[in-house]
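Input record, target 12 of the design panel.
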């Protein structure tokens, strides 16, 4: 079980990011994904998903977002408050394959972060940094269902 400090908190309950990631990863167009928690004043924290598409997958971003939000809502329930989905070219990972969620959270919160020496591809941080910086605004790319 995931430590409580890393679980996204909603107004009513805690929904663990691994559960959300499992649902998102089950979509046939998703090659890999990461869910991080972003600060949200009314709810404390809200989960935000970042997905890398399978090679050759041709999906309209809004259609994919709607499908993923619906899947999470159907399989976990409305308490998941999962509304943010962003398609990225790649996720920041170590050479051993661990996704660097802490750095993603720090970028989204505009906190200082250090690029670890074990980063697989340092150029990957350029794309998520731009995307995550725009995701700070709760209304940006949010799907309300």
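The sequence produced for target 12 reads:
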């Amino acid at each position: 079980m995931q430590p409580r400090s890393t679980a996204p908190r909603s107004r009513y309950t805690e929904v663990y990011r691994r559960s959300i990631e499992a649902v998102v990863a089950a979509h046939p167009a998703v090659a890999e994904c990461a869910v991080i928690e972003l600060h949200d004043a009314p709810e404390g924290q809200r989960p935000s998903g970042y997905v890398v598409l399978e090679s050759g997958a041709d999906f309209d971003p809004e259609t994919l977002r709607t499908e993923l939000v619906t899947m999470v809502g159907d399989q976990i329930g409305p308490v998941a408050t999962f509304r943010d989905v962003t398609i990225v070219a790649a996720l920041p990972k170590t050479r051993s394959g661990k996704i660097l969620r802490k750095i993603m959270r720090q970028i989204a919160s505009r906190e200082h972060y250090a690029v670890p020496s074990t980063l697989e591809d340092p150029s990957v941080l350029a794309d998520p940094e731009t995307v995550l910086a725009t995701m700070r605004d709760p209304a940006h790319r949010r799907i309300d269902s």
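The CA atoms of residues 26 and 71 lie 9 Å apart.
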